[in-house]
Amino acid sequence: MSNGQIVVSDLTKRYKNVTAVDHLSFVVEPGRVTGFLGPNGAGKTTTLRMILNLVTPTSGSATISGLRYSDAPEPLRLAGAILEASAAHKGRTARNHLRIVAAAAGLPDAQVDKMLELVGLTPAAKRKFRGYSLGMKQRLGIAQAMLGDPQVLILDEPANGLDPEGIRWMRGLLKGLAQQGRTVLVSSHLLSEMEVLADDVVIIAAGRLVTQGPVEQIVGGGTSAPRTRVRTPNLTELVTAVRTAGATIQPNGNDSHVITGLDAPAVGRLALQGGIELHELVNERPDLEHVFLELTQGKAAIR
Ligand SMILES: Nc1ncnc2c1ncn2[C@@H]1O[C@H](COP(=O)(O)OP(=O)(O)OP(=O)(O)O)[C@@H](O)[C@H]1O
């Protein structure tokens, strides 16, 4: 029964002085990219390591397709992971590195060239690992994680060290893998990238769940007041009108200002009534970064 769900149930990890993960529960669905987000020290890496049985939970459990990773008969077919940019013997070529991993896991050699192709490393397959850039190492890490053709992929900060072209490539690859029905769980600090990459997000802070759900729902369901960006040559008049209407206005760089508490139609009406000329009037959609900061404010204890 390889349904590809990751189920985290009441998972807790206590170290001597810190509870890294605190009664955390969430479900990650197949066929979707799920972003795993949280401020520094939130417990993301510890959670991913517990899912992969690299760290033993203090209590609770995590399963992939109903199995604990350590109980999987063929772990590399159940889930592939990169927890840090891949490490290989410096003098070994990417191809030889993958062949050794494949052989150790009883996987066919043919998978090696297939995965090198998938990540665009075929031209560099015979180069030694010591000359690889960070971006190439990330690609090799993905090739390694994909060797067993796993139903589930778990990636900790895979965009680290990638240039814009690399990030775009990674986005296409991960979205494509989810479209094939795989489960893709990816942690990242890059909120704007997550907003375009992820279908769902799980947000944690201080080891606990803050929220989970489809990105659109989380971004759209924020409690924030409407925000409108404007540019006007009649700033003094606009500031007075906005304040009289009970809203606030702040400079936003580039001659523009952001009004909080009024949507674009309301600002348009105010301007019309006051004979105020507008050169720009834009609804500022809340973005994932805003919602994230709002939801995790005060919970980002430095620890
Ligand atoms: N082996 C360990 N021993 C003691 N404390 C640990 C250990 N591993 C993690 N921690 C602590 O657990 C907390 C969570 O760490 P974790 O690395 O899981 O967070 P994170 O969300 O991945 O953070 P970041 O985004 O900064 O990588 C931190 O306070 C960290 O210092």
Automatic annotation (TrEMBL):
Transport keyword on record: yes
Keywords: ATP-binding, Nucleotide-binding, Transport
SUPFAM superfamilies linked: P-loop containing nucleoside triphosphate hydrolases (SSF52540)
A GO term for molecular function: ATP binding
ABC transporter domain sequence ranges: 6-231
One Pfam family hit: ABC_tran
Record-stated family: Belongs to the ABC transporter superfamily.
Name of the protein described by the UniProt record: ABC transporter ATP-binding protein
